[in-house]
Design goal:
The chain is mainly α. It contains 24 helices and no strands. The chain has helices spanning about 1-10, 15-30, 40-55, 55-75, 80-95, 100-115, 120-135, 140-160, 165-180, 185-200, 205-220, 225-245, 250-265, 265-285, 290-305, 310-325, 330-345, 350-370, 375-390, 395-410, 415-430, 435-450, 460-475, 475-480. The longest helix has 19 residues, at about 185-200.
């Protein structure tokens, strides 16, 4: 059947071909069953899934809403199929950065499921997880953790501790700990998830590969880049064997590998890997896809690191063109590209342009997230660094104080981002020859990095190096040598 052929194409990552088969199936169902039939609604869902995978989120939303309309007419509000439709719509809102709308739709789905199934049901747990994902996207990590823990509690009881859905929730909780800078706890959660995936699926399965990627990301965050590469390459080997080389998931793993080479300063290797990712994404997803925009941004960062600023800006413009077409101006992904463009103009010494791009990014994040969000803190810090490079120390300090306040409130005082802001603030004091203040900032940064990252992390080493340089400027050479 056309639906069966579409499902095969989805498994291969060929969503464009799957869309064609699903559209053929729809024509038959409309002719035989008509519009007002659950099978027609199911077909609309399948078409929406393809548009979502291809990055056509407005189209996906249109088809999910068609399905919802049928379910409401055929089975009513209080039916699990209607709940599923609300969840699908919520997922699109989340992708579009409309997090409050997403949570509203998830709440409607949850209400239906609680009435239909009760609290202790796998489908209820899934909705709690989905709500956790939305809070995670908003960087409201404590609320996300509450939802994930509710889901886990249900799953452990009704599915058991060795079920793959339980593994997914362990992984989600691990992602929260990672974002909060609690790397040891994050690693414990991801290793639990991996153990379940190995017991359930074995080594040669896409979900096992995903578990290796999650573990690799933690090692990446810890600065253990060689260990991260081992995990990513292990995942890649599984994905190529199970999914084939030409699959979107393989492209994402190449991006992770490229990012690791970038952190190691191996820029040419990173570019080669990113080019592989782009070729796969172009073949499987097409040019107008958020994944392409993300990879263009990564390529741009490499050119930025190599001081090839015009080439970097060319990549960012490609990313921005895709994001503007798909998401519009007011989306967090668009803001990331503006930040990269701002940094690159700073590198060129074009500080007015840099400030304009950073302020655009800030406006987007304030509109989508509100002031109390880690990305807002990062944006204040970027603006501060631009003022510093342009010689306006007072403005730079003002912005860093804002960044520090937001970071402390959203992430806590012992988060690596807080340490980074202290380090950046130290540079302002050093530029003003206020070395004692600079050392005070660096000491605070060092305490955080020792607590959250450990002695052997590259950022900890960099902090020691900055302290040494500051003592040297003070003429305290013995302390500098320490």
């Amino acid at each position: 059947t056309y639906n069966g052929m579409a499902n095969c194409c989805v498994g291969q990552g060929n969503h464009q071909r799957a869309l064609e088969f699903n559209e053929r199936a729809l024509q038959i169902r409309l002719a035989v069953l008509g519009e007002e039939h659950p099978d027609t609604a199911s077909n609309y869902n399948n078409i929406a899934n393809c548009h979502d995978a291809l990055g056509s989120h407005d189209k996906a939303l249109e088809y999910y809403e068609r399905a919802l309309k049928i379910y409401l007419a055929m089975v009513g509000e209080q039916h699990p199929d209607t709940a599923m439709a609300y969840s699908n719509i919520a997922n699109i809102y989340e992708t579009q950065g409309k997090y409050d709308k997403a949570l509203g739709s998830f709440e409607r789905a949850l209400k239906i499921k609680l009435a239909a199934y009760g609290e202790q049901h796998p489908s209820t747990a899934t909705t709690y997880s989905n709500m956790g994902n939305a809070f995670y996207s908003k960087s409201e990590y404590d609320k996300a953790l509450q939802k994930y823990e509710k889901a886990l509690q249900i799953q452990r009881v009704v599915l058991g501790v060795l079920h793959f859905e339980t593994a997914v929730t362990y992984s989600n909780i691990g992602s929260i700990f990672f974002k909060k800078g609690r790397y040891d706890e994050a690693l414990q959660m991801q290793e639990k998830a991996l153990e379940i995936q190995l017991n359930t699926f074995g080594e040669q399965h896409p979900d096992t590969a995903s578990a290796y990627i999650s573990i690799g990301s933690i090692h990446f965050g810890e600065g253990k880049h060689d260990t991260a590469l081992q995990m990513y390459e292990r995942a890649l080997k599984i994905q190529v064997a199970v999914l084939s080389e030409q699959h979107p998931h393989v492209a994402i793993t190449y991006v992770n590998i490229g990012s690791t080479h970038e952190k190691k300063g191996e820029y040419d290797k990173a570019l080669q890997i990113y080019d592989k990712a782009l070729q796969i994404q172009l073949a499987t997803l097409g040019e107008q896809h958020p994944g392409m925009a993300s990879t263009y941004n990564h390529v741009g960062v490499i050119h930025y690191r190599k001081h090839k600023y015009d080439q970097a800006l060319e990549m960012y413009q490609k990313a921005l063109h895709i994001q503007s077409a798909i998401f519009g101006e007011e989306h967090p992904d668009t803001a990331i590209t503006y930040v990269n463009m701002g940094n690159t103009h700073s590198g060129k010494g074009e500080f007015d342009k840099a400030l304009a791009y950073h302020e655009r990014a800030l406006r987007i994040w304030l509109a989508t997230h509100g002031e109390l969000h880690p990305d807002v803190a990062t944006c204040f810090s970027n603006i501060a660094n631009t003022y510093r490079l342009n010689g306006d120390s007072d403005k730079a300090l003002e912005m860093h104080h804002k960044a520090l306040r937001v970071a402390n409130e959203t992430l806590g005082e012992l988060h690596p981002l807080v340490a980074s802001i202290f380090c950046d603030t130290s540079l302002i004091y050093s530029s003003k020859n206020e070395y004692d203040n600079a050392l005070q900032m660096l000491t605070k940064a060092l305490e955080i990095r020792l607590a959250s990252l450990g002695e052997q992390h590259p950022n900890t080493a960099m902090t020691y190096d900055n302290m040494g340089s500051t003592f040297q400027r003070k003429g305290e050479y013995d302390k500098a040598l320490e």
